[in-house]
Design a protein that fits this description.
- This protein is α+β, with helices and mostly antiparallel strands.
- It has four helices and nine strands, in the order E-E-H-H-E-E-E-E-E-E-E-H-H.
- The strands form two sheets. Strands 1, 2, 3, 4, 5, 8 and 9 form a seven-stranded mixed β-sheet that branches. The protein has a two-stranded antiparallel ribbon with strand order 6-7.
């Protein structure tokens, strides 16, 4: 299997890493929820220690969910995915996303919280943004060019993930998801209508591409 060199995995630089992480090889594809479904429009509940419900830090169920989210993200050609996008009410995200320097960042983070960064030393970038739950639509969304997210890995160990450029946008986008927001919420009414129109026009094409990618990954 081919590898890319100089990859940040869970915020730590490694010399090489597979193009498709091992999580995806263990995972199963799940249906991606779409804008309008209630689970996307309410804050997700925090991941806690595994209890009676079974899923929680250190549990096989949480590890399996991470695996499924990775595979589902790759099938959909995404750079990030939140648990509520696979209809699971948990503050959990996965990502495989480059920054503006082409450096790849791969990982997962539970209970992500964005640091409030001082305006000095950061820029607001108004660039194209899409969402797997708004299939086919791309709209310009202003976001800061830096992000710092704090949370935990699937075993409950603390994490601090920093990103710039496109990766910063990804971290902010996915944290929005677990807070119950989609990127359409950041648009004007006219822009939102435009995005939904794009979705209607391109949705079937997107789904066909996902089916093709799923077959490719299985092969």
């Amino acid at each position: 299997m081919s590898v890319r060199r100089g990859v940040f995995v869970q915020g730590v630089l490694v010399e090489s890493y597979p193009m498709v992480p091992p999580e995806a090889a263990r995972g199963s594809v799940r249906r991606i929820t779409e804008v309008g479904e209630e689970v996307l429009h309410r804050p997700s509940r925090e991941v806690i220690r595994a209890g009676a419900e079974g899923i929680g830090f250190g549990s096989p169920e949480l590890s399996a969910l991470v695996d499924d989210m990775f595979l589902t993200m790759y099938v959909a050609d995404g750079a990030g995915l939140a648990a509520n996008q696979v209809d699971v009410d948990l503050r959990l995200v996965v990502y495989d996303c480059p920054d503006d320097d082409g450096v790849r960042h791969v990982g997962h983070i539970a209970n992500p919280v964005l640091d409030q960064l001082a305006p000095a030393g950061r820029r607001l970038l108004d660039e194209g943004e899409g969402c797997l739950s708004v299939p086919g639509a791309v709209m310009d969304v202003p976001r800061p060019d830096r992000a710092v997210v704090r949370g935990f890995d699937k075993d409950g160990n603390p994490l601090v993930i920093e990103g710039t450029g496109y990766f910063a946008r990804c971290l902010q986008h996915e944290t929005d998801h677990v807070d119950g927001h989609v990127y359409l919420d950041r648009l004007s009414r006219r822009e939102r209508k435009d995005a939904l129109r794009q979705m209607e026009d391109r949705r079937e094409h997107v789904f066909a591409r996902r089916l093709s990618k799923a077959a490719e990954l299985r092969g």
